[in-house]
Amino acid sequence: MSIDLSTTYLGLKLDSPLIASASPLTGDVDSVRKLEQAGASAVVLPSLFEEQIDHERREVERLHEFQADSMAESLSFFPEMEYNLGPDEYLKTLAEAISSVKIPVIASLNGATRGGWVHHAQLMEQAGASAVELNIYFIPTERNANGNDVENQYCELIAAVSETVHIPVGVKVGPYFTSLPDVVRRFVQAGADGLVLFNRYLAPDIDLDSLTFEPALKLSTPDELRVALRWIAILRDQIDASIAATGGVHNVEDVVKSLLVGADAVMMATILLQKGRDYLGELRTGLTRWLEEHEYESVEQIKGSMSINRCANPEGLNRANYMKALTSYTTPE
Amino acid sequence: MDNGYVTVDGNEATARVAFSTNEVIAIYPITPSSTMGELADAWAAAGQSNVFDVIPQVVQMQSEGGAAGALHGSLQGGALSTTFTASQGLLLMIPNMFKIAGELTSAVIHVAARSLATHALSIFGDHSDVMSVRSTGFALLSSASVQEAHDFAMISQSATLRARVPFLHFFDGFRTSHEVNKIEPLSDDDIRSLLDMESVWAHRNRSLDPDRPVLRGTAQNPDVFFQAREAANPFYDAACDIVQQEMDRFAERTGRQYKLFEYVGAPDADRVIVMMGSGIGAAEEAVEAMNQAGEKVGLLKVRLFRPFDVTRFLAEFPKTTRRVVVLDRTKEPGAIGEPLYQDVITAIAEGWDPQAERTPLVTGGRYGLGSKEFTPAMVIAVLDHLATDNPKRHFTIGIHDDVSLTSLPWDEERFNEPDDVTRAVFYGLGSDGTVGANKNSVKIVGENTPLYAQGYFVYDSRKAGSTTVSHLRFSPRPINSTYLIRKASFVACHQFELLRRMDVLETAEPNGTFLLNSPFSADEVWDHLPVEMQKQILDKNLDFYVIDAAKIARDVNMAGRINVVMQTCFFALAKVLPIDEAIEQIKTAIEKTYGKRGPAVVEKNLNAVSASVAALQQVTVPASTEGDQHMLQPVPDFAPDFVKRVTGMIISGKGDLLPVSAFPVDGTFPTGTATYEKRNIADMIPVWDPDICIECGLCALVCPHAAIRTKRFDAAELANAPENFLARLSKPNSEPQTALTVQVTPEDCTGCGVCVNVCPAKSKEVVKHKSIDMMPKADHFDVEKERYEFFATIPDVDRSTVKSNTVKGSQLMLPLFEFSGACAGCGETPYLKLLSQLFGDRMVVANATGCSSIYGGNLPTTPWSTNAEGRGPAWSNSLFEDNAEFGLGIRLAIDGKRDRANHLLSELSEEIGLELATEFLYATQNNEQDILSQRGRIARLKEVLRSVDDPDARELERIADSLVDRSMWIIGGDGWAYDIDFGGVDHVLSTGRNVNLLVLDTGVYSNTGGQASKATPRAATAKFAAFGREAHRKDMGQMAIAYGSVYVAQIAMGANPAQAIKAFHEAESFPGPSLILAYSHCIAHGIDMTSAMSHQKDLVKSGFWPLYRYDPRNARKGEHPFRLDSKKPSIPFKEVAMKEARFAMLARSKPDRARELMKLAQRDIDETYSYYSQLADVDREFTDLTP
């Protein structure tokens, strides 16, 4: 019996739920092509960071203005060159990737200003992106930063982008909201076509020699997926939008669990970096085998079968889970 | 909008034509012509073509001599070829110029005419360079304005092709090369139509080609050389006609008619002034004004100086001419007169109408040397004087010569510019963007309105905290006023703190407008102004406005960049354009200028514009002066007489008023003067917390300005200390108890923050708090000043007790290089300061031209200084291209004197006493104690000699001090050592003489604005390497090591200070030649200067800059002579490189090329490490006889 692995994510028909998420592997066209060959059903390009673009532009400006016109013998210190500081390089890679693969190519965007979010999403649409994923990342540091205001900002920019572009809009956020179901509902209301759960906010590390914070890239661990599993199960029945699970999908079991709770697709980066692109093939085979062995017919069938409304023990998703874990650790059998 | 005009400076005006009409361009940087080469390189890198649809090949050479050689060769190869240069550069081209002309080769050299170095170097303009090549056989064509520079670049190119006489096209350095003016540019079609393709092909066909071989460059004997030399005459005879024909063709095409000589003024003039160059602009205005006042005078402009067309020249004079005055912008000491004067005399003697009653009386004067101001009032004075009964035959104008009495007096009040010219003067700091904004204003008006616009900019010679003065004119007519604005209808001061240091209202005319960037509002500002300034505002009845531009800049996220704010206010107040139109134009210009930098940069600039006009406040000027603020004294009262009389005048911007008698006759100046100039440029200064200090000395070591110091002293001194003085006491039972203080000198600190960045002592409770923190100067100034004043009185440490080979120890020694005007955070000066601490009291410095000669020796003051005994480094700068040889020469002289002293010692050993003589014989001078003992011995010797009645004793008395070892340091940048004087460096290293060469290696020509040298690393961009430097950085160290007899060290103070100090000591003690390559970060790297010293650590870790020492003495001892002091590369080069804009820029601009070059650069590093680590195991023998 052949198993139907196809799924729909952001309205895009995918031939499996296995998506390569943003990582160095999706950063160049050649690698994207290899991912397709290995079995990725879609790719998400690394994020275009508006802040970085602005930062670089400002840096170039500063560079050219620093000590310029200060000394008679040296009115400047650098040759004036044509810089590729805007999103052009990114858009070029995006367009090339689109034209060299058949699978959907999703562009990812991390904006800094309202205008920037909209403008860059439009450029991605023009370049032919199948969908745009908004990678929203906001760290409030002031004690008067009001949670409601922050959530409103999220919603406003989702609305601004989804009103402007005609391609599907995915929203990738972290789990740290007081009431995730409410906020996700508002995201969808604002125009989000799908959610990517969860963004792994990479926290800085401390360098013990210099006693400074240093950016630290830490790859995901399988444990991390459990946060997503819980929330996808809770959200699945309450929102009308696609959901992708991400962060800690490392093996076939993780894929299956994600589908069970209601994910339409899974996104992977760490495991592909660790095991290579061809691991996608193993996952695909493994998923097929698991579904076969457990007598499922299709991905559609298993999707959401353990959502909060459909699972056997919904209490396992709420606070009792925590209590149980606590007691089982503290009270030896 | 675009009116077809462009506003460019003279360099760009020239380079546009030169680039469009040539196929090979040989370049080398030299002020003020560097811009031409930079533009050519950038255009070629961007793939721009010339009118032949070819991208010119732009090749950088190792010197102007090299550029001239390449030019000569390329011409022989049949390419249309050019080069750009000035001053010493032109001198280096002379040999090839004779060849190029002797071979009748079509070529143009474009020269931004600049002074030659004589008693001093000057980067500024006069004709001493071009007049030095008038015998080469090159035609000399002179442009007097930016438009002419553009036009004559074309005319000289088309003329040389037809005439076969090579041309030197020149215009005045700075006055024309750097003046921004509105010109009508030639289109490519114009250029094509003006080039005679027949002549182009004729030139190409004269090339060396094995298909039609010829022999050129023969040697000739007495039988034929002379005749053969005369064979070229017909070409020179024809050249003048050809130039005029080309000028006529040019006029047909463009409507701009030129003549070889051109007379303007009264048709019946009795007095005529003859001159060439930019001074013509001033002279023409004067002549016009005088004629309007009823006089009959004229101006004869000289365009083509060589070949000199006597007939055309004389034909220009009105028949009524009775007296002629010739002004030369050069000086030929000992000549009857300067060159133009002599030619005019000769021309008149040869060709004046023999029927005439008599030939005119001709006098000659010098003006404008080194860009000395030349004004219409001076021309009036010259022509007035010419009318007197006995005019001086030879005179000067523009200075007060109270020694030889050559100068004519003049009165600036005799000339006023027309009322309909808007004249605006702006005072700013180099770092605040004032000049950039003003260039932008000139562009806005020049390119978008019918008005004409001119901008000229004056810079002081400081690299940190330099002040700028911008002079802008806007007029309904073309502007040829080639002099600074003396009466401005609008004056703006962009920096409040300049008010007490500069008389910014000197140029304000009565009823004019004064705009001040002020932290104080209109209501508060008045009594914060110096009383002297208040008085001027009242006396001149100025309209006075203030704006808090710094606040607006901060509000729109452009902290420190107040330029757009002030520019908008200027347009609002000066009314050159209707304000709304002006604002629209500024906004358009912002989009044009910053569009390529992205929307965020555009937006913040636009925000600044919007916020500006509303924030402008008019001050209701009170009826009288108020408050107690006064102008600052340029130097303190206790300064030496010379410093007060001369240096102080220069510091306060009144150097023009100094008479000839004020100056040394031979360019010799006292050292130790920087200390009297308190520049106060820092906003933040380091403040010391003794409680957590670990006394490492790093802060003082890395300070580029010697503005933070450490002193260890007898704790008893503290009895006299001010109450708040800080010190760390040694243990109470130490005998004697000592104290250590780290002290900043707040008035000299530039606020670079390098000391704080390297400070390793962090608070355990608050990590960001270090033993020194940057704090607002305003909050700490008074206390720190008082502390420093006491600190300065504490006796210096006894040098013989200090471990000078440690960081800590070396920093207890008095720096004899202090408070230089180098850039804040400079990477070179810490090395020089360290040298001066270690060897300063017996050190002689030969300094190559470059940054170090500018911050080391540019007036008004010098950082090279003296100790309490009056000893200190003796310093001299000869040239750029000869410094190694120059230093060797000094060494030879010193050695000769010492040898003579030793000889006399042995001759007089009986008279002196055998004991003392023997002591001298066996004395070593290996450390401070030895030196101290030797000085004591010499004192005893002199004492003894006093009673010896022998001429030899008298001689020995005079030269006995030379028995203290002199430490000879030959210092310069990589442009000097790797490129222009590489031959000299190599030769000096081969002599075995005891000289120390210190290369302050920034990897670029820093002083001229960051052009590539052979030390520029692969994959870096630099000017002249806009496409990314392709070649591997030259490994100078290995070249020197190849001799086997040279001490070589590669050091980086920020990475390993102890190794750097060790290398200095080893080099100094090595009795032969030493070469130290010292990594010096530089603003031209595009780095954060504050953390630059720490960044050096990463550079060394990446293997980019391996540290090593090669000591031939170890070979002699049978040890490995090469010692690698840095570890195996541990971080990828790319990671480090991307923190420097010079590398990162290429990745942003040409990512593919950047990747490719970065890969090669990494391979260079890996290969070098592998090679060096093998070298570390290599045995060598030391085979030299000496030392």
Automatic annotation (TrEMBL), chain A:
Keywords: Flavoprotein, FMN, Oxidoreductase, Pyrimidine biosynthesis. Residues 6-289 form the Dihydroorotate dehydrogenase catalytic domain. GO terms for molecular function: dihydroorotate dehydrogenase activity; dihydropyrimidine dehydrogenase (NAD+) activity. GO terms for biological process: 'de novo' pyrimidine nucleobase biosynthetic process; 'de novo' UMP biosynthetic process. Its EC number is 1.3.1.1. The lineage of its organism: Bacteria, Pseudomonadati, Planctomycetota, Planctomycetia, Pirellulales. InterPro entries: Aldolase_TIM, DHO_dehydrogenase, Dihydroorotate_DH_1_2, Dihydroorotate_DH_cat. One of its GO terms (cellular component) is cytoplasm. It holds the Pfam family DHO_dh. Pathway: Pyrimidine metabolism; UMP biosynthesis via de novo pathway. Its cofactor is FMN. This is NAD-dependent dihydropyrimidine dehydrogenase subunit PreA. It is an enzyme of class 1 (oxidoreductase). Signal peptide: none annotated. It comes from Novipirellula herctigrandis. Coiled coil: none annotated. The keyword Flavoprotein applies.
TrEMBL record, chain B:
The keyword Metal-binding applies. The record marks T31, E64, R114, N1007 as: Important for catalytic activity. One of its GO terms (biological process) is electron transport chain. Residues 684-713, 740-769 form the 4Fe-4S ferredoxin-type domain. Thiamine diphosphate binds at E64, E828, C851, G973, D974, G975, W976, T1002, G1003, V1004, Y1005, S1006, N1007. [4Fe-4S] cluster 1 binds at C693, C696, C699, C759. Belongs to the pyruvate:ferredoxin/flavodoxin oxidoreductase family. Its cofactor is [4Fe-4S] cluster. It holds the Pfam family EKR. This is Pyruvate-flavodoxin oxidoreductase. Binds 3 [4Fe-4S] clusters per subunit. The keyword RNA-binding does not apply. InterPro entries: 4Fe4S_Fe-S-bd, 4Fe4S_Fe_S_CS, PFOR_II, Pyruvate:ferred/Flavod_OxRd, Pyrv-flavodox_OxR_EKR_sf, Pyrv-flavodox_OxRtase_EKR, Pyrv/ketoisovalerate_OxRed_cat, Pyrv_Fd/Flavodoxin_OxRdtase_N. Pyruvate binds at T31, R114. [4Fe-4S] cluster 3 binds at C823, C826, C851, C1082. GO terms for molecular function: 4 iron, 4 sulfur cluster binding; iron ion binding; oxidoreductase activity, acting on the aldehyde or oxo group of donors; thiamine pyrophosphate binding. [4Fe-4S] cluster 2 binds at C703, C749, C752, C755. Keywords: 4Fe-4S, Electron transport, Iron, Iron-sulfur, Metal-binding, Oxidoreductase, Pyruvate, Transport. Signal peptide: none annotated. Its EC number is 1.2.7.-.
